[in-house]
TrEMBL record:
Belongs to the short-chain dehydrogenases/reductases (SDR) family. It comes from the Bacteria. The keyword NAD does not apply. GO terms for molecular function: 3-hydroxybutyrate dehydrogenase activity. This is 3-hydroxybutyrate dehydrogenase. Its EC number is 1.1.1.30. Keywords: Oxidoreductase. InterPro entries: 3-OHbutyrate_DH, NAD(P)-bd_dom_sf, SDR, SDR_fam. The keyword Oxidoreductase applies. Pfam families: adh_short.
Amino acid sequence: MLNGKTALVTGSTSGIGLGIARAMAAKGANVALNGFGDPDEIEAIRAGLEADHGVKAVFVHADLSNPDEAFTLIRKVEKDLAPVDILVNNAGIQHTDRIEDFPPEKWDAVIAINLSACFHTTRAALPGMQARNWGRIINIASAHGLVGSPFKAAYIAAKHGLVGLTKVTALENAKTHITANAICPGWVKTPLVVKQIEDRAKAEGLSVEDATRTLLGERQPTERFVTPEQLGELAVFLSSEAADTTTGAAFPMDGAFTTW
Ligand code: NAD
């Protein structure tokens, strides 16, 4: 289904990005991985994608907090693999604090990685997509791209901004076969969320199990985590020909997080 396409998934050494990279490879896309982690583990992931799915997979380093590295990531993928047909802007970090206690350097880091990097990769990838008249840009926003919560000022500002960037990308390319959509997950059990659960368990004197139940129970009515595999399937759909006129949208996959 995605045979012959090249997908770059930022932040794909872990969690949701890895789930999306696996889903893309399973449908025949060649995949460029990016993110931090142990080099041996990353190599095992890369080699596993090739062995399991018969596609080409490369790892391309870029620290997306740096605008130049975000921009040149696209050029590196072109050189090491092929031009980027499917760009999944997924890398993200979190920091929680009340606004008056929020360290400005944490604000800058969250905005740089969760929002500005998506602008830099998009502006680097678009001219090639326009020349080929085909492209898919999938921005991994969040339920927090659609609704607010306390203590996450930078994250929520970045994710709302990313939904806005998605709309502009879609509108500017609407007459082409380039689409831009955002996916807005609810809680997914990845390292990013496990840390929040552990912090909460410590702060509130709860067991990790009780902190998990509380976290899901207060915002995610299904009380089940969304999975990276489910998000991978949605990203595959958005990359397909069936989604050629699906653009500018923000898709919640959130266990009804945003419906109340
Ligand atoms: P994760 O911590 O498992 O993965 C984050 C990935 O980003 C990792 O591969 C990490 O190495 C990479 N990364 C971090 N900083 C980077 C940098 N400076 N340069 C390059 N790569 C960097 O987290 P996750 O939960 O899989 O999150 C993935 C995306 O999904 C994020 O954008 C996050 O905001 C979003 N999201 C997560 C949830 C959730 O519940 N887990 C919910 C909604 C949205």
